[in-house]
Amino acid sequence: MFSKFTSILQHAVEALAPSLPLQEDFVYHWKAITHYYIETSDDKAPVTDTNIPSHLEQMLDILTQEEAERESGETGPCMEYLLHHKILETLYTLGKADCPPGMKQQVLTFYTKLLAHIRQPLLPHINVHRPVQKLIRLCGEVLAAPTENEEIQFLCIVCAKLKQDPYLVNFFLENKSRRTEMKTPVLTEGTKESALAPDTGQSPTEDQAAQQEGPQAAAAAAAASSPARNNNNSSNYNLVTSLLNLTKSPDGRIVVKACEGLMLLVSLPEPAAAKCLTENTELCELLTDRLVSFYNALPQSMDPLDIETVESVNWGLDVYNLKEDAAVFTGKRALISFLSWLDYCDQLIKEAHKSAAAVMAKAVRERFFVSVMEPQLMQTSEVGILTSTALLNRIIRQVTSKALLREMVFFLLGEETEAETSATMAQNPLRHRLIEHCDHLSDEISIMTLRLFEQLIQKPDQHILHSLALRSLEERNYLENKPQEEREPLENGQPHDAVDLEEDPLFGDDLSPDSRLSGSEWLSSSPQPSPDHLKSDGKTEVHKIVNSFLCLVPDEAKSSYHVEGTGYDTYLRDAHRQFRDYCGVCQRWDWRNAPKPLEKCNLDSPFFEGHFLKVLFDRMGRILDQPYDVNLQVTAVLSKLSLLPHPHLHEYLLDPYISLAPGCRSLFSVIVRVVGDLMLRIHRIPDFTPKLLLVRKRLLGMEPEGINIDHVTLLEGVIVLEEFCKELAAIAFVKYHAAASSSP
């Protein structure tokens, strides 16, 4: 009661007294705080019952006013006084002792506001960054502490300052062997004056040197004296450690703020900080342990559709309603928590310094993908395989950081780059198992795994395509090995004339000149068709290629012309858009040496199409006997591969006129065999054409489901085959036009 009266009286006196010069006023408020510790005998009264908060607030106001009245960058006498008398050191000592109770909270607030409000750089001063470093060590010590909010605000303002001037981070990489922290004295009656002899953590000689050096000299010394730069691996990164501790807070807002602080720190360009971050903190452990924990909390069985369709998740925006989530599907809350943390890991790695990103991504691969996901994917339970594959598909879809994507790809496909053989295709057990799952007895597993690969081949990583297809086609040994004199002569590695499709009636409005792809050397280098389908004037006849696909399915097996809006031209716009998107991704890849000239290819080596293409071709060969949904997914993957602008893939998948080596097959030859089988079976089915048309209309929702139709699987397969051939024709046309328009 008495202290409150004293405070009121003091404010009244201050209001009536004439205004003092700023420095005198500043010194007055500081001495009022120090006198409290000398004169008071009540150590247990909370700080809010004293004048200390008011004096600290006045000191901040004076410092802010002083800076506003001076030219930019000029240090005023009040700030000089704060630095010279080591006021921040003293406040740190008082905050550490929390005397009077609540003082730590006041000190944290003072530091935070000082760094936030003062525009001139303070951290380069040794009498600022030393106490700031020591105050950082006090943060996150106690979980759910009453000062958590002030702690996270303080840490975040330090992170923001480091983001503005990244070199300052070297002040916060603390050498373990040199740090000798003095014990804080207990503020009893006999030791109160120790508050005025602050814990500086340095020798008197260092103190004297610090008095003489300015912020510029300190800044220059920061990088040179960094423990990490001196090849000393025993460094503390206390700022990261304190933030990591606060990520374990039960308060979600504190956790998000701590994660934001870590995001700022990992993005700093200083190599020393990146090295210390991954070698001397538990950041990698936090990321992976929490990812594993969230994954293990998921139900053992989940509907793949729920996993695929749950709303996209951004970390930090994890708003939820337990009752609503449980009503949608069991495990939705756990799934969103997992995907939210995955998004954080992905974004953190994307923002991180390159060396730190590589280490964090490798940790996720080893501690999550290999340790947790691989056993799930390799299990024999069909329910478990389906759930884990659906989750992996969602993970692939969500990952965008280059480093994490590369580690995930290596996990799934291995790091091998040499051509596959039938003997080596099983050397990576997980890759082999996943590809085999594309042809699983369970149609659900087959469809989900095919979707996974469809998602994978659209990711911007060159190794994916090389591992799944390109390494098997590199030598072009699928071609018949003709003598050199029988090959078509080329000029400078190109055919005599470029293709001219400007007036092509099929071109129409779907591919306007304004939307054509920009020219590039690699795009126009697709292997050219063989000489038996060249025009008399030497120009490549693209219509023969298009018609080769359009005419594959015999007229009696076609049904699209009976239904409006299902012609070949409907695929052109989609093919153009998708091809343009692929070109944007692939243009960064080193495909400049493709196509490999035939004279440099080892055509005598035995050809193996690769495990992935083998399974796809096998499934394509059974298109008349497989469920409709399986066929849709098989053709979707093959069309994505066909869209890729690599010359060897284009030649192997889209050129009907190549002469195949004995025993080899291409996509076109597989479809030819399917059509041959179809011709034999059509005549065994009465009323084939009416049934085919009815099935098409039912699939389009134009006819209600009625009586069962026999041979429905075959009829649906014929419809998918017809549509797939039209799609391939459109892709071939778009790619030939792009190559022609980019040729000189």
TrEMBL record:
Comp. bias (Low complexity): 208-233, 515-527
Source domain of life: Eukaryota
FHF complex subunit HOOK-interacting protein C-terminal domain ranges (all copies): 609-701
Disordered: annotated span: 183-233, 481-538
Cross-referenced InterPro entries: FHIP (IPR019384), FHIP_C (IPR045669), FHIP_KELAA_motif (IPR045668)
Basic and acidic residues bias locations: 481-490
Family named by the database record: Belongs to the FHIP family.
Name of the featured protein: Family with sequence similarity 160 member B1
